[in-house]
Each structure stands twice: as C-alpha cells, then as structure tokens.
Amino acid sequence: MIRCAVLLLLVVACSGRGPAAANGELRIVSLHDVTTELVVALGAADHLVGVDAPVDVPDEVTAAVARVPRVGDLESILAVHPTLVVGLHIVEAKQPALVARLREAGIEVYLADPTTLDHVYALIRAVGTRIAAGPAAERLVAQLTAEAAATAAPRPGRRARVFVYDCCDPPFTAGGKTVLADLIARAGGDNVFADVATAWTHVSWEEVVAREPELVVIDAYAYAGQGDVADKQRALRAISALAGLPMVAIPLRDSLGGIHSVEGLARLRGAIRSLP
Fold it and tell me: Per-residue pLDDT averaged across 6-34, rounded?
C-alpha cells in the first residue's frame, strides 16, 4: 500500500538523493499537511525550508520534517527565503492577503483545490513538476490508480446515505465540493450534503436528522478545542435520531485530498458494504 511507498521514498530523501531544481536552489515552504506529506513522499524533504505545523500526518512524515522550521505568517515565511510555496486553496481562502504578498514578492505559490480523486492525481503531478520530481510523481499516481481499481467494488443495489461529522456544535461537515464527497460516491454512497455547493461547512443538527443518514463518517484527528473521536461519538449519541447509526472513524488525512485518499476509499467501501 501507499504507506510502504512513502517509507521507501523517505529513504531516498534522507540519503540526500532527492530531486533538485534546475538552478540547484529549490527552497520549499508547505502550508498544508497534504502538500507537506506529498513533498516528502516525492523525495524532496531536504528541500523543505518551512512547514505549517502538521495536524495529522504519519509518524515517518513527522520525523522527516522534525527539524524544518514552522512557518505560518508572512514574516516567518519570508525569513526562510522560499522559491516555492505549496498548499491547498484553503490557505488563500483564510489568508488572501498573505498569498497576495508572497506573489508580489516574486515567490511562486501553488495552491491546489482538489474536489475529486482525479484532482488528487493532478495535484501530485503538478507538485512533482514544480519540484523536479516528475517521474516519481508519475510512479506514485500509477500506484494509487492501481490501488483504487483493486479496491472492492461498491455493494450492489441501493446507495447508502452518509453524513460526515468532522467536528463541533453546530456540526462541521463535508459539502459537495470535497474529495471526501467523491470518495463516498465511488464507495457506493451519497454524502447527504453533496447538494451543498461548497467544501466544508457548518450545518444544523436538525438538517442532519432531516436528511436521514444511514452511516456516519467521523474525521479522526486531534485539534485544540474540537475533541477526539470519543467526544464526537458522544455528541452523536446524544441525539436520539442519530444514536443508533453505524459510525466509522477515518484519519483526517484520508479525507482531505492527499496521497491517502485511496486508503480512505477502501475504508469507506468497507463501511458501506457492512451496512445491513
């Protein structure tokens, strides 16, 4: 699976044989877990000069970036003199002025906005091209495509109605413009908020109940003030209409459009196929 591939590529990165820019001065800042892990997986960890603090990455990625400075605001990013800043579109949505200032400073900024698994493959290729790791990116895409094809087919018959509970009260959930909604569809289900033409959004518990989900997907990650999986399960069970629903927790990194998306697809298919 992809975890083994990442470990293999980490050996390459740590050996100092990772890709280099044509001018030998590639300096990468990553502002999202998805791109941080991808840069590491493509063998370019030694070119990272700054990363936003990781939220949910595998232990080997945490180790690979342990000594990389943490950045986030304009001053900290400019201080490490990047030639390339990568991340997801959410960075610009939250900090448009930051992104504008980086571009004004002549720094290349690539912020992807994946909403399907195919977009994930395009993201991998785009980052690979920018860090002179095109062949490694193509190998990774080929591996992920094969794994997705090999994943058990969706259950036959009626599609399952799925509610994604990321966190919070009122609940924060996945809308239609998310990779997770696409993965649910590929797995044989329908995100009950797929008709909401946005990415991640707040809804009300009344709306959740009204859409009659049959399965709850809980994003599993630890973040200040948002509770863990057990806290989220308790919140769901406190609502009588949701208390008896099957629940499956999946790592946040399986949901956001990175190299673990195929693992998320496999988890979702397993959960949906197990429904009565």
Answer: 61
The first and second tokens of residue 48, run together, are 């990272």
Is the same domain home to 116 and 185? Answer: no
Read off φ and ψ for residue 216, nearest 5 degrees: -115, 125
Length of the chain: 276
How far from 13 is each of 18, 32, 63, 204, CA to CA, in Å?
Answer: 5, 19, 12, 45
DSSP 46: G
Measured CA to CA, the distance from residue 269 to residue 248 in angstroms comes to 11
CA of 247: how far to CAs of 95, 139, 146, 229, 268, in Å? 34, 34, 28, 10, 11
Residue 63 falls inside a structural domain: yes
**Same structural domain, 180 and 141:** no
Backbone angles phi, psi at 38, to 5 degrees: -65, -45
Residue 249: strand pairing partners: 218
CA distance 225 to 22: 44
**Tell me: the pLDDT tens digits for 174-201?**
999 999 999 999 999 999 999 999 999 9
Token readout for 273 is: 């196929």
Instruction: Domain count for the chain, please give it.
Output: 2
Angstrom distance (rounded) from CA 193 to CA 68: 38
Please give the average per-residue pLDDT across 78-96, as a whole number.
Answer: 97
- The mean pLDDT value for 93-115 works out to 97
In the block, tokens 């863990």 appear at 228
Which residue has 């740590």 as its token pair?
14
- 252 has a pLDDT exceeding 50: yes
* Cα separations in angstroms, 189 against 33, 162, 192, 215, 260: 27, 6, 9, 9, 19
